[in-house]
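Working notes for the structural subgroup meeting. M.R. asked for a predicted model of this chain before we commit to crystallization trials. I am recording the input and output together here so anyone reviewing the notebook later can reproduce the run.

Input as submitted:
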Amino acid sequence: MNYQQTLDYIYSFINYERSKMPIADPAAYNLPRIARLLEILGNPQLRYPAIVVAGTKGKGSTSAMSAAMLQANGYKVGLYTQPHLHTYRERIQVNGKLISREALTALVERLKPAIEQVLGEAGTYGPITTYEIGTALMLQHFADVGVDLAVLEIGLGGRLDAVNVVTPLVSVISSISYDHTDVLGDTLTKIAGEKAGIIKPGVPVISAEQHPEAQAVIEQFCAEKQTTLYQVGQDFLVRAIPASQSLSPEQRYYQHQRVELSAPAFDTKFEANLPLLGAHQQQNAALALGAVLLQSQQPGGLAVTKEALVRGLESVSWPSRLEVMRDEPGQSLVLIDGAHNAESAARLRDALGQNYYFEKLYFVVGSSSDKDIEGIFRELNRPPQPAGFILTRSVHPRAAQPEMLLERGFTGSDSAVQLTDKVAEALQLAQQLAGPLDLICITGSLFATAEARALFGLAVESDGRPD
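Returned structure, recorded in token form:
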């Protein structure tokens, strides 16, 4: 089996990332099924401690910051995230290094007999999915290489996500907002109920600042599970330190934001230069700090130092989040951001106004058809109104046609809009429109931003996207 055959095998199962996802129901998302597969493998997830991170937005950034801080303390840290931008190998990392092609291929060959055994028990557990297989591959790989701790991002929801088979040292819940409403429910109460499904008896929980409706659900779950809830804004604090220099045509964006983080109960307080911009990343940094400090207090947790926490935060990298693609004199500034729901679009719009200098703003937008398209464009199109939009679509099967984006996103809008079916053509159109002091932002989905990264030569490797 070569690498391409390995990918073909992984993608040959039910793949909800590429097709319409069913509602959150055990018939589709089955914890006993992944538990059975892991049992056959000898339960590799029990060989190291973990942090599990759920939420609607910010969970990937929070996971990356948590892993970076632990790695800076000298530990071997596994990081599991999804979706990937360019190669499946991005999903399974150890100390920032992707699993190799050879290791992934060997791992699949090792796990095939166990997978086939679970397939033979489909009458009991139902058909296994691509995501469940990927989760098992990750858990086994981290055991094989002997990680000191794994940071595991929930893929969707929480209650029924395959990662939820793991009992972590700390359960982390990032900001909850409306997304995947056709799967998780159409109210914050329902969505929060799915996210809070990761809460386990006796395992401490740290939550971002939440809407009162979501907050009430988290508090209820913690009370029922008899565990302690810690909060950003109460137990773990963050304060932005104003930049000493104003933005200008010569300095068009900040390289980092300086923050003060503190945890009074842990006698911890420090300042750091956070490379990830935006007020929302300040909150994510406080959430990650809380996760790392709380795990250190649990049996089997890892000790950390203040100096290493600073180094970790200052070294973190998380592509497609306010990531600059081009900053050259005499040319428009180009950046990408994977905002894919209304709340993340609002945070993007805020961050652009606070961290970037530009005369006119142009958006290149490609979104998935199952997203809140109306909400995304409501936030992107708010005053001061952008100079123009170029609507496009990525090659992903769930990508919305530009005509759908126009119909659902621009009712009653006076914005100048152009349509094209290719991200490359959309970027060309935007560059023709934008002046040397203007800003082009490609957003709407990670699939669109991944294509943009490839156009700027930042995709070192690409698997393509198998159907």
